[in-house]
């Protein structure tokens, strides 16, 4: 039986980052992970493989649509699906091996297997019981299911199956117009699949700014994605090679059917706590199945903490990482901090969408006086040169103080540019501070400055 200062259950971005910070702070640390590789959902079946396929399919799209206009002529590339999947798997391996290397470097033990907590201070893996002064639950999440739609990971798939399909489908139905559905829908659309997205709500990307939702839907539609909104999926019937999805339109209750050779269920994710035996030791959960935490990410049982997708908040890798670092600081007797008001969210479609802080809708709900500074990428020289002039930057600032309250970007490299505004918000900056900051020309980031100028006397290039 080994004894540790900290045992973390789950080696995803929450767990592995927490482990590295614990080790850096001098704590004897182990991570229990049941998968064959470290990195969790994010590195194995989430963020990283999806971005690899988005990159590959985007490159194809560029070659097919924009190369000739730039004078790059010749045969457009064709798709070798096996090789594309091999490239994706290689990217996964490089990343997961990288985490293994960091564990060795920081002298973190990887206890292989599935863990449970038989009593506070103890973690059981197989027949072994390990002692720990502190236990961190970082067991993440799994794909949510839908009644009447049985996942087989072949014809009816979750995001995990969609990242390793045997062949590129001719027709795909995506259930759910959230981030994962739109990203993977975009991948297959660019590879030639006819993609129809069915969404229960009347708009895509729930929680996003309304103007961004409409703009993104319009652009994706232009790219070939079809949308059925306000539709409740009833069931999916599977034959040997195809599926038939039945849905009713909420406006008139009319029933419709659509056939496809692949159905992606992308209706969200739910916290994963199976096998931990939390009920037996009294770790409380929310009605939605998340592990309940209080101050300092403490659960209802002293000495047991929880972070990442398994607790409340946005299910994002960087949110899990931030909590991982913060809880390590807490355990080491220091101060751990996460600013939940400034967690960016990014959709890696083309164009990308990125948002942070308040939206116009949330400010209206709060009855808060605000002003909007908006700048279209059409007025940005770099974006025009790169066939990327669709979309805009929108900055929301307090009407009186000019303090930045939130921002949305739909456009090229939005996921990179949003951080300028995150940093500005962390420093409590006014829109004028961003407007007075010299931005290099020609960059997409100039659009951020122009939007900040639009909060004051007005942008230059519109
Ligand atoms: P996880 O990454 O889920 O890791 C939990 C780990 O715990 C798993 O490896 C699991 O095997 C292990 N585990 C569970 N129970 C036990 C047990 N009892 N014993 C031992 N091990 C156990 N987020 C972003 O921020 N950006 C993105 O672009 C993005 N893209 C995504 C794309 C897809 C297709 C998906 C599915 C998700 C995406 N996410 C993205 C979400 C992101 O992957 C998660 O928010 C993130 O992985 C959560 O980290 P975590 O550490 O909380 O949990």
From TrEMBL:
Explain how, and how many, cofactor molecules are bound.
Binds 1 FAD per subunit.
The catalytic residues are 441
**Highest rank taxon of the organism:** Bacteria
All copies of the FAD/NAD(P)-binding domain together span 4-324
Q: Which GO terms describe its cellular component?
A: cytoplasm
What is a GO molecular function of this protein?
dihydrolipoyl dehydrogenase (NADH) activity
Disulphide-bridged cysteine pairs: 42-47
Tell me its EC number(s), please: 1.8.1.4
The cofactors required by this protein are: FAD
Q: Where does NAD(+) bind?
A: 176-183, 199, 268
Which keywords, in A-to-Z order, does the entry hold? Disulfide bond, FAD, Flavoprotein, NAD, Nucleotide-binding, Oxidoreductase, Redox-active center
Report domain Pyridine nucleotide-disulphide oxidoreductase dimerisation positions. 343-452
Q: Which SUPFAM superfamilies match?
A: FAD/NAD(P)-binding domain, FAD/NAD-linked reductases, dimerisation (C-terminal) domain
Residue numbers binding FAD: 51, 115, 139-141, 309, 315-318
- Other comment: The active site is a redox-active disulfide bond.
The entry assigns this protein to a family as follows: Belongs to the class-I pyridine nucleotide-disulfide oxidoreductase family.
Q: What is this protein called?
A: Dihydrolipoyl dehydrogenase
Q: Which organism is it from?
A: Jhaorihella thermophila
Q: What is the lineage of its organism?
A: Bacteria, Pseudomonadati, Pseudomonadota, Alphaproteobacteria, Rhodobacterales
